[in-house]
Amino acid sequence: QRYHFNFSKLFSLRSKNTGFTEKTPLLKVSSEENGLQCMALHNPDFATDDDSWENSSAEFEQRFQLGSEMTSLSRSASSEKHEILDNLPVKFNLSKMRLSRYFSVFVLLMNVWFLSFKPSLSFTRGTIFINIQAFLQEPGSVPLSMKHQYLRANIEAQVTIASIILVGVYVLIILEIVHRTLAAMLGSLAALATLATVGERPSMVKVVEWIDYETLALLFGMMVLVAIFSETGFFDYCAVKAYRLSRGKVWAMITLLCLIAAILSAFLDNVTTMLLFTPVTIRLCEVLNLDPRHVLIAEVIFTNIGGAATAVGDPPNVIIVSKQELRNKGLDFAAFTGHMFVGICLVVLVSFPFLRLLYWNKKLYNKEPSEIVELKHEIYVWRLTAQRINPASREETAVKCLLMQKVLTLEMLLRKKLSTFHRQISQEDKNWETNIQELQKKHRITDKILLIKCLTVLGCVILMFFLNSFVPGIYLDLGWIAILGAIWLLVLADIHDFEMILNRVEWATLLFFAALFVLMEALAHLHLIDYIGEQTALLIKVVPEDQRLAVAIILVLWVSALASSVIDNIPFTATMIPVLLNLSKDPDVNLPMKPLIFSLAMGACLGGNGTLIGASANVVCAGIAEQHGYGFSFMEFFRLGFPMMIVSCTVGMCYLLVAHVVVGWNS
């Protein structure tokens, strides 16, 4: 028969020492001249009811779990730095425990967790918890041995590990081994495990604080607004209007869409711009039998370019203008916007012809209509059926011949359809006016009352976005404005099928952003971003003084662009601002502050076009397109986005060099 006693009741009621409770420390660590000493504070005598023991069988076992708390851990002055605590003998007596025949002690688990340690030059005070589980069958002394080894990695090792994690995440995304959301989750988990290994394990509360809830709230609120908006037929109506303005010319339509997206993103957040533009573009391309992927990639590229023109168009610009020290030195909203607007206009003028050159050999029309795809699938099924027949008899041979004849007939029909389709798409759409009339009959506003409600709410939300940037008395961030607008529209629209609205929310995109925020903050705690900034500053300092400003502009812009194409530009910008401020204050360097900040802003914003996850708008656009069945891969975006990033950054670099090195526009 086995007896199981309550642990806290046993300690509080059964101990003969009235001052001993379950919270009384058993072990104490003290600092002496020869090092750390660990000793027993209490030798508790556990008393039990004699009747209870006598009634027990000879094979009675009792399990005690002793929890102890060691405090006041300090470092000996004579010991060397980073020395480990090794082989500390710990003994305490569990006396007068009247158990039966055999004696055996098995220490099954002793885990020491250092909860508050940071990689500093000396040990810091903290709390250590020890859980000991022992099985006793006879009274006796319990020898324990505790080892503490503090593993600390230097900065270079942490940066190397962080770089490996980042490269691993990109390999998973580029090769499409897993979905990009899962890749970001695996990367954030690896980064958190690395932080725990080097002694900086963050708590769950801290990890949750790393997530940018303002961005997630903005995305969620705008996704709900767009989902309700799509029920009105407004996107179909906009697609027909865009087709009318372009007069049936595809490139005129693409140029118009990209230009409008760039202008809107200069005043709105580029994520909001793509949330509004992506459904319109997809519907327009479906009407015109175009491939939406290439048009969407072009739009998101110019959205990122246009967002760099003003102080509110892109998050890095908002961070720069919000810095009080920069504002005290004259870099306010007007000064920042006036300088960046001129450069971005030049970038846009050069980027449009280059985009046309990139799309020169790309077929914007769908390669094949749906009827041709279905016909190909039918041919495949007939041929597979014929191949499965074994012509062992005359009848089976005849059936196989009939099936193969059917395949040949379908293939001939397929060739005719393909020939007709290619002739149609090679001709210029001269009957665009007739097509407009047919499209207007098919695609029209379906719910005018709901459309008025949606336009009213969306107009108020966009107005609040503007006022939030210019009026300091509004204490609502963009996320709150979007959430309140979504709730307001849900009330006005009287939505009964709420699950239908939630199904249109890009949950995978929201989860990807949450994992990406954790990954980037963890990499920042592993000193990856600090290391990039410090190495950039060191390279600038070794340049001769007469060439230092030009080299600084080039180096800061390209480092910012390349870094922002692979990591989130928000933590990178926040880290680089103090580095550049220290450079401008250093009398040995003697560099003006504004050219460095403008180079940082130009590179961080334009660098988002380098990869699919370089900017938030890229991920949002890809998520919505994937939901509509037109998802594009990392490499598809990279083939177009990275060359556009190189050209746009080159134009921006030339503008900054002329403005600050040649003209001297530094005041």
What does this protein structure show overall?
It is a multi-pass membrane protein. Its main location: membrane. InterPro entries: Cit_transptr-like_dom (IPR004680), Diverse_Ion_Transporter (IPR051475), MFS_trans_sf (IPR036259). This is OCA2 melanosomal transmembrane protein. The protein has 667 residues and is mainly alpha-helical. Among the domains are: 7-148, no CATH class; 370-439. It is built from 26 helices and seven strands. The chain has helices at 7-13, 50-54, 155-174, 180-197, 204-209, 213-229, 234-245, 250-267, 270-288, 292-307, 315-322, 324-328, 333-358, 370-387, 394-426, 432-442, 448-470, 478-493, 498-503, 507-525, 528-541, 548-566, 569-585, 593-606, 616-627, 634-662; strands spanning 27-32, 35-40, 62-70, 85-94, 112-114, 128-136, 140-148. It has a three-stranded antiparallel β-sheet with strand order 3-6-5, with no helix packed on it. Helix 6 (213-229) runs parallel beside helix 9 (270-288) and helix 13 (333-358) packs across helix 26. The longest helix has 33 residues, at 394-426. The chain is globular and about 90 Å long. 33% of the residues are buried.
Rg from Cα:
34 Å
Helix content: 55-70%
**Structural class by secondary-structure content:** mainly alpha
How big a fraction of the residues is strand?
A: 5-15%
Note the main sheet. Answer: 3 strands, antiparallel
Mean pLDDT: 73
Number of helices: 26
**Roughly how many Å apart are the termini?**
89 Å
Q: Which ranges are low-confidence, i.e. pLDDT below 50, for 5 or more consecutive residues?
A: 1-17, 31-125
